[in-house]
Amino acid sequence: MSLVVVGSMAFDAIETPFGKTDKIIGGAGTYIAWCASNFVPVKQISVVGGDFPQAELDALTNRNIDLEGVQIKKDEKTFFWSGRYHMDMNSRDTLDTQLNVLENFQPVVPESFQDCEFLMLGNLVPAVQRSVIEQLRKRPRLIVLDTMNLWMDIAMDDLKKTLSMVDVLMVNDSEARQLSGDYSLVRAAATIMNMGPKYVIIKKGEHGALLFYESKVFFAPALPLEEVFDPTGAGDTFAGGFIGHLAKTRDISFENMKTAIIIGSAMASFCVEKFGTERLREINKSDIDARLEEFVQLVNFDISLG
Ligand code: AMP
After folding, report:
1. Which among 136, 179, 186, 274 would be 20 to 30 A from 195, CA to CA?
2. Are 52 and 77 in contact (CB under 8 A)?
3. Of all protein residues, whose CA lies closest to atom 18 belonging to ligand 1?
4. Three-state SS at 181
5. Per-state percent for the chain, helix, strand, coil, to nearest 5
6. Residue 295's pLDDT band (boundaries 50, 70, 90)?
7. Which residue CA neighbors atom 16 of ligand 1 most closely?
8. DSSP 3-state assignment of 226?
9. Minimum mean pLDDT among 161-165, 201-205, 243-247: which range?
């Protein structure tokens, strides 16, 4: 039984008000894998070009990330994305997207991945995400989907088809509004739950995340940080922490999902502290435990009702 992660592996170039990078390693699948591998071994499905450094692949393998599902297209180039953050760091503009190997990506699920119990579909073309679900002979216990506004703009029907096959949808607040056509996030979540997912997670950047299930709602804060260096990949890291915890505990109850979104928030708080995946590569279990303790303190209070 295992965790399978699907998502882009990329070169990113990032500009924030505090600095600028040349091409660094990025991609939704990369962030998810680095994060989730703190909790369980990961089986990765993705595609890279011949320009993707072998040392990066080796670093992932050393983290117990199985790359059998990662296609290497020797004569092609890796997906490239570039973005610039605004002063508030909550919004950004995409400056460039070069699909390269992602253009004709057809994922192939290796035989050794057929034992998939938890499936994390990182942000990708919805039809590609669906193709992985369809290749699995036994439905995973839990399928989590991340997506973005781009697919709502250009592939809404496909996205809705994929959405009808998953258990948990993760989106940010503006995407939830766009998908549902409703400004109220409570009504938006209800509308999205009617499209298929039993659980909806709405991320609100530095303002935390909401988890909806039936008529219940739970809120996880984001840790107030003195400095946010680079928010790229925070959503993917959140996803990695969420599914990593669920896969480790093998408990998919609503109660355990509450813990999972706190762990997702804690992991995301590391991601933003440095550029790219740098911070995620440094942290260990004691860093994670200390950060979780900060979360406990952040929301712990007594109240006596008269
Ligand atoms: P996030 O900050 O969580 O939205 O994720 C940022 C990561 O998503 C970057 O590392 C990009 O390489 C990757 N990314 C951006 N656009 C796309 C896209 N259209 N398809 C797949 N991955 C993307």
Report:
1. 136
2. no
3. 124
4. coil
5. 40, 25, 35
6. very high
7. 81
8. coil
9. 201-205
